[in-house]
Amino acid sequence: MRLLVLLIMFSFAFSQGTILLTPKKAIEIAFKNSREIERIRREILSLEDVYRAEKWDRFSPKVDLFVDKDGFNLFGQVLLLDFGNRLARIRSAKISTDIKREFLKEFERQVKIRVVRLFMDLALAEKLAEVKREEMAVAYVRFDREREKLKEGLSDRVKVAKWESTYRRFRAELMKAQRRYNETLYELKRFLGIEVEKPVDVSLEGLLNFKVPKNVTIDTDYLLRRRSSNYLLRVKKLEIAYFESRAKEQRRIFYPELYAYLNVKNRYEHTDRFRSEGNIVLRIPLFDGRASFFRERSFLDLKRAVEVERKDIEERVKRDILRAPYVWEELYARYQDAVAYDNWAQENLDLSRSNYELELAFDLGYAMSTKTEAERRVMEARFNIILFLMRLYDLLGEDPMRVFEGKIPFFTEKVEGI
């Protein structure tokens, strides 16, 4: 009785220490533990502080204390109005922050795709190990029977060596599949920031029961209308605005600034006497050796370079959108092929079971392993479709996990030609 209680307590403690990982839960852990995400967030905070500093620097008063051998001066000034580069500096700081925020959003989308891909690799490795385990079992039985027949003089060494070679090959492939599974599991833990020795329980919630849409095709018009939301296009648009703003910062010649200042003076021999004066000053830069001109032209050249780059990116996005229907048709055809193969494998397995005899036991074993391999093909074809749809969502700058929410907006009903 005490032993039973101890076993129950141990089982309970073990279950409490085991992390249940679903794709959704894993993504939450990744966002929480990712050092790269934390680094980007810190960079955003830094850029936000720069933006605040530029806003305060524009019209906030500044006070300086000057001390020399005769006395001290307290000098304060405030900018009342400017027509030049200060507002552009504020805008540049804000755009830098917006660019980094876009980068963080894209990185988070890539994290989601990466986590789902790791779960898929785990599932495929586990299924492949199941296939190789069944193939190895059949080959071992054949190998063992050939050895027994050899002792009775009903076989020869060539057949025995052949089946031993087959058995050893399947066993090596099983070890490879198991190694791949464990390596993928360790990589998943590392990516999520979980200690690699910590036990986890993996659940493929949402992946295995994903329903592949039927009789649909990709609506390229829908995708083209939303291509401006693409991450790279959004970033390049912000970069163009950034360099344009930086160019405006350099336009100083003939851009006036209006200041108000107050100067309070005191001499050491008359510490009880203070002299103050205030005034409003209009400052108009007239000449700086054309330095601002060349700096402005430098940023304008960078702006034009980004415009060229953005045009190329837009063409690539359009290319990816226009080729999407063909990729979808290929993936769906592979899925249908896998489903048809799985249906045949099931029929073959049912037939083998109905005809089961001792001499046909091997046929049943092969039918079982063939059915498992067919299930793996269907799983792989379904996973490829899921990844394709997730990348399409990412292409539009949207959450890739929307794939699992149900209706996919960029599908349209397929119309068969006459």
Please outline what is shown here.
By secondary structure, the chain is an alpha+beta fold.
Give me some keywords for this one.
elongated; 9 helices; 4-stranded antiparallel sheet; two-stranded parallel ribbon; about 425 residues; 2 domains; Outer membrane efflux proteins (OEP); single chain; alpha+beta
Provide structural commentary:
By secondary structure, the chain is α+β, with helices and mostly antiparallel strands. It is 67% helix and 13% strand. It contains nine helices and eight strands. It has a four-stranded antiparallel sheet, with no helix packed on it. A hairpin with a 2-residue loop joins strand 6 and strand 7. Helix 3 runs antiparallel to helix 4 and helix 4 packs antiparallel against helix 5. The longest helix has 66 residues. 23% of the residues are buried. The N terminus is likely disordered.
Query: What is the domain total for the residues?
Result: 2
Main sheet strand line-up: 2-3-6-7
Q: Specify the CATH architecture of the largest domain.
A: Up-down Bundle
- Let me know the CATH homologous superfamily of the largest domain: Outer membrane efflux proteins (OEP)
Q: How would you characterize the largest beta sheet? A: 4 strands, antiparallel
Portion of residues within helices: 55-70%
| Global outline | elongated
Average residue pLDDT: 86
CATH topology of the largest domain: Outer membrane efflux proteins (OEP)
Number of helices: 9
Give me the count of strands. Answer: 8
What is the C-alpha radius of gyration, as a whole number of Å? Answer: 35 Å
